[in-house]
């Protein structure tokens, strides 16, 4: 069983590619595009068609080059299907402490969503390895800075929701370790070439904000 260290990000680049709505038949092409751009963390939300098949395909494509997981994980059935597909990361939009503890006990990297300090601390106590601040775009970097001031310094906080290449640096400067990237990275129906180009824009924005951080 895979285990992950607490209060640490498991990959070199703390950017999660969110492929919401992707079809299993196109998952391999988009996975290749993301990997070539330097991404090493890929999520397929459970409200995507045949999501477990997409996770399985991306796991096969990525091998050891990326941590692959599912988003919008809501219950134990999702966790079981994720593990069967070979996924290693469980991402949820909310703070469900029982679900967090279950996912951690199964050896998954657990990234739940939270908005308040109380939710973040509850998630961490339940076994979360990192926390995503959602919806970050509505809350803004100033909220991140205020929240970060009371959180454990080592706990990775990712901005998710409304993050673009233009504002990624602001969220990093406010105290986020990285971000989850949705519609500004991938939208259903776009080509793998477009996904690769958008991924390179995000990697460039991350490197510009964190020039000392070595990324693929």
Automatic annotation (TrEMBL):
Keywords, in A-Z order: Carbohydrate metabolism, Lyase
Q: Return the broad EC class.
A: lyase
What pathway does this protein act in? Carbohydrate acid metabolism
Q: Which SUPFAM superfamilies match?
A: Aldolase
What PROSITE patterns does UniProt report for this protein, alphabetically? ALDOLASE_KDPG_KHG_2
Residues in the signal sequence: none
Alphabetized GO MF terms: 2-dehydro-3-deoxy-6-phosphogalactonate aldolase activity
UniProt xrefs under Pfam families: Aldolase
Q: What is its EC number?
A: 4.1.2.21
Fill in the subunit field for this protein: Homotrimer.
Family affiliation:
Belongs to the KHG/KDPG aldolase family.
Question: Could you tell me what this protein is called?
Answer: 2-dehydro-3-deoxy-6-phosphogalactonate aldolase
Native species = Ramlibacter agri
């Amino acid at each position: 069983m895979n285990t992950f260290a607490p209060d640490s990000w498991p990959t070199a680049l703390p950017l999660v590619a969110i492929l919401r709505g992707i079809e299993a038949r196109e998952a391999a092409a988009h996975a290749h595009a993301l990997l070539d751009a330097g991404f090493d963390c890929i999520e397929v939300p459970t409200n995507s068609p045949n999501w477990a098949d997409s996770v399985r395909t991306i796991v096969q494509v990525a091998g050891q080059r990326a941590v692959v997981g599912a988003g919008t994980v809501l219950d134990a059935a999702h966790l079981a299907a994720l593990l069967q597909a070979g996924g290693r990361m469980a991402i949820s939009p909310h703070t469900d402490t029982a679900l967090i503890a279950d996912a951690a006990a199964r050896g998954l990297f657990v990234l739940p969503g939270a908005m308040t300090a109380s939710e973040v601390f509850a998630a961490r106590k339940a076994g979360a390895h990192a926390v995503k601040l959602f919806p970050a775009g509505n809350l803004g970097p100033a909220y991140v800075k205020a929240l970060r001031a009371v959180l454990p310094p080592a706990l990775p906080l990712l901005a998710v929701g409304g993050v673009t290449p233009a504002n990624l640096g602001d969220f990093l400067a406010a105290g986020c370790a990285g971000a989850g990237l949705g519609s500004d990275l991938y939208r259903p129906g776009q080509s793998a070439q477009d996904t690769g180009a958008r991924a390179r824009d995000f990697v460039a924005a991350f490197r510009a904000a964190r020039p000392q951080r070595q990324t693929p």
